[in-house]
Amino acid sequence: MTQNTLLHYFKWAFIVTAFGLVLGAVLGWVNTGTIGGTATVFFICLVLAVLEISLSFDNAIVNANKLKDMTPVWQHRFLTWGIVIAVFGMRIVFPLAIVAIAAHIGPIDALVMAAARPDDYARIMTDAHLPIAAFGGTFLLMVGLTYFFNHEKDVHWIAFIEKRMARIATVKGIEIALVLILVLLFSSLLEGEESVAFVYASIYGLLTFLAVEVLGGLLDYSQETMSAAARGGLGAFIYLEVLDASFSFDGVIGAFALTNNLFIIAIGLGIGAMYVRSMTIMLVEKGTLAEYRYLEHGAFWAIVILSVIMYVQTLFHIPEVITGLAGAGLIGISLLASIRYNRLHPEGEGEQETEEALRRI
User: Fold this and answer.
1) Number of independent structural domains in the chain
2) Which of 73, 157, 263, 329 could be joined to 294 by an S-S link, Cβ 3.0–4.6 Å?
3) The pTM is what?
């Protein structure tokens, strides 16, 4: 890949990075009036951007997996409208909505609290972590398990597990049963109101996944009578927006470990979200998922791991760096396995799994 090609895909991400870091420095100067304070805010914005990117490698791959089957019109809509919703909706509006609901105040009052009383704002967001983690974890776990529990899936990376999952996928609702078992297990480790909140939030996450699946199918089916330019995209668009929301939960909550300032968080995570968008476009246009056959598997395993981590975080804190490294590590290993497979099958011959080669990774 040439430097010009990278610049083509990441041009807007670089522009937003420069603008965001300058804006963060200005915000730091306004808030502190010192060079040290300005440098601190600048550094926090940079760290938040890296955090978002590390947590969202799998998000970009899953987005690309869905986008490659969408029409160019809906691809463009997701990569324009969708990124606006992702940056402003999930990084600004969503936290404000949580605080407004939890504190029983209006959205304007929540915005004033974020600006004038950031400690109170951060405390409310932290208190809301358990139901958010339960909801997001359940939704993401369904996304991951649905990918592997598919009897038509014939390419397997971790073959001794994935083959068995594909084989028993004919049992209807097997992934739902596994999710409910995990929900009951983790809720039993919590006490009182926390246990009840975990169960309710998990059920809402499960129902949201099922509702999005049904709604997406109905919308895409209804579009079969429409023009080719509008066909087969609205349901996938809604699915990807909810998926992005679930991925963003961890980053938004984890950001409060670095700062209580909503606007600094929005700048840092917004920069990271632009890189996720750029990676998504590159993966779709270059056909990377088809070229590296196990990369998609690594992303979905990362989703499963992330969802379980979100469950575990309802019991005790797990540093975000571990979450990010776990996902990036799985994707990296799957990439190495894909490269190894391509070397062993340069012309694509032989569909049998090279388990011995994979074990050497």
Assistant:
1) 1
2) 157
3) 0.77
